[in-house]
Structures are given as C-alpha cells and as structure tokens.
C-alpha cells in the first residue's frame, strides 16, 4: 500500500513537472498567438532607450527588440522599465523579454534567465562641468555626487573615493539635479554619458575620468523559458556576426565601442 502511494506521488510529480515545463515552453507560442512581443526597455537612457517628441520609445535597444519581433513575425510593444522593476516585470509576466541596459551579474542570473553571449558592455564614469577640472576619481572626495537608486557603482564611488552619493529613482531627476548645481557630478554608465556629451545642451559638461568596472550587459527572459533563451542566444550571436550592434551604434550617434568591435571580430 505504501509502495503504491509512493508511486502515485512520484507519478504526480513527474506529470506536474512535465506540465510546468510545457506551460513555460509555451511562451513563444503565446507570443505568436497574441501577435505581439512585449519587451521591457528603458525610456530614460538615450540613445539606448528614450522617448521621441511624440512620446514613442526609440533607441538602440528598441531596435534590437524590433529585430526579435520581426524574427517571430509579430508586432512589438515597448513597456518602459527602470532598474528597480525590470526583473520583477519578467517574473510577473508583464513582459516577455527585457533588453534594458542590465549589467550581467551572478545574483541576477538567479532571478532571470540571461542568454549568452552578452550583447553589450559599459563601464562607470561621471558627467561633470568642464569648469570643475576633475581629473581623477579621488577628486570626488567630500563632494555630492548624483546617482541612480540601486546602481552597484554607488557604493564603490562612496567607499573607494569618498563621494557623498545623492541617489535618485531615474535619470531625469539626476540630470536635473546636476544642472541645478545640487551635485558636482553624476556617476553613471559611460555609454550613456558619451551620448550626453554629444548633446549641444550639455556642451559645458564632460566625461573627464578613466572608465572603471567595465561590465557586460545581458538581456533576459523569465526563468524556465529555455527555448526562448536559446533563440535569443542565436540572435545575439547573429547581431555580433553581422555587425548589427555596430550598425545601431552608428545610427544612434555612438562611437563604435571596443566591446562591440571585439565581439564582431570574434563571431564574423
């Protein structure tokens, strides 16, 4: 009797596991049946994801998301995300895919599924008035420095260089505080700062320090979506192989980065 009971439990677990796998594997079919791929992207991170004058989300990462939708033969819908909610949106099923300037870290791979290889990379630097004449990280000691809530480099900038971090939820608030003189600098991704220094509105500002902590970016799908992850892995390789990332950098005014050039050389 006990053996029969154990067999029943084991059978139930197998069926349950198979059902779980089947349900999770259905996301690509769900997207196709829905006719729309829903992608979480940044809307405040020019040129990687930002709003045009009409309020549409555009940029390098929305273009990559459109590539995925075209591959699947469906429309694309962009959902603006921020650093503090992008992984939650995947876990909660609010988005199918996340391409949102996320640094690839081991702890994040425990929460979402990040396909290899990485599609992009960036490091840490600051945006500051040229007139301040900052030349080394130690020049930030004792100065208020704007940052983004949850950014991993806030702690390093504070502990290693003595900056007094003033953290904001989004970049718009941080840029406004910097312009208002409430911060001596804004510590952020060098990829975004380079683009900002090319904006005539920020002609008086510069990225004066040596970039540190260069780290790869990973796009992500929900845990268990192995088929979708494999498809994205293949697409990332193709983006590098064909020079798509380099092409998009040029399109959106970013000087081709060492990472994008190296990955193109590796896969072409």
TrEMBL record:
User: Which keywords does UniProt give here?
Assistant: Signal, Transport
Extent of the signal sequence? 1-25
Q: Which SMART domains match?
A: PBPb
InterPro entries named among the record's database cross-references: Bact_solute-bind_prot3, Solute-binding_3/MltF_N
* Domain spans labelled Solute-binding protein family 3/N-terminal: 36-256
Keyword Transport found: yes
A GO BP annotation: amino acid transport
Domain of life the protein comes from? Bacteria
What are its GO cellular component terms? extracellular region; outer membrane-bounded periplasmic space
Q: Which PANTHER family match?
A: ABC TRANSPORTER GLUTAMINE-BINDING PROTEIN GLNH, AMINO ACID ABC TRANSPORTER PERMEASE
Family statement drawn from the similarity comment of this UniProt entry = Belongs to the bacterial solute-binding protein 3 family.
What name has this protein been given in UniProt?
Answer: Transporter substrate-binding domain-containing protein
Q: What is the lineage of its organism?
A: Bacteria, Pseudomonadati, Pseudomonadota, Alphaproteobacteria, Rhodobacterales
């Amino acid at each position: 009797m006990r053996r029969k009971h154990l067999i029943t439990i084991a059978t139930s677990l197998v069926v349950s596991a198979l059902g779980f796998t089947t349900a999770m594997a259905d996301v690509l079919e769900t997207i196709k049946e829905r006719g729309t791929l829903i992608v979480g992207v940044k809307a405040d991170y020019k040129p990687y994801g930002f709003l045009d004058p009409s309020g549409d989300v555009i940029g390098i990462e929305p273009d990559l998301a459109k590539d995925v939708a075209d591959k699947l033969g469906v429309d694309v819908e962009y959902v603006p995300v921020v650093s503090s909610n992008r992984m939650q949106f995947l876990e909660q099923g609010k988005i199918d895919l996340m391409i949102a300037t996320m640094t690839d870290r081991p702890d994040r791979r425990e929460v979402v599924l990040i396909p290899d290889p990485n599609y992009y990379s960036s490091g840490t630097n600051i945006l500051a008035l040229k007139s301040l004449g900052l030349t080394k990280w130690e020049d930030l000691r004792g100065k208020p420095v704007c940052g983004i809530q949850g950014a991993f480099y806030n702690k390093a900038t504070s502990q290693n260089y003595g900056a007094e971090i003033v953290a904001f939820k989004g970049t718009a608030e941080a840029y406004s505080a910097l312009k208002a003189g409430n911060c001596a600098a804004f510590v952020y991704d060098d990829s975004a700062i380079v683009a900002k220094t090319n904006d005539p509105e920020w002609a008086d500002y510069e990225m004066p320090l040596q970039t540190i902590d260069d780290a790869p970016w990973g796009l992500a799908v929900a845990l268990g979506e192995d088929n979708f992850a494999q498809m994205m892995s293949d697409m990332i390789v193709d983006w590098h192989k064909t020079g798509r990332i380099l092409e998009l950098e040029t399109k959106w005014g970013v000087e081709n980065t060492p990472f994008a050039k190296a990955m193109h050389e590796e896969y072409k």
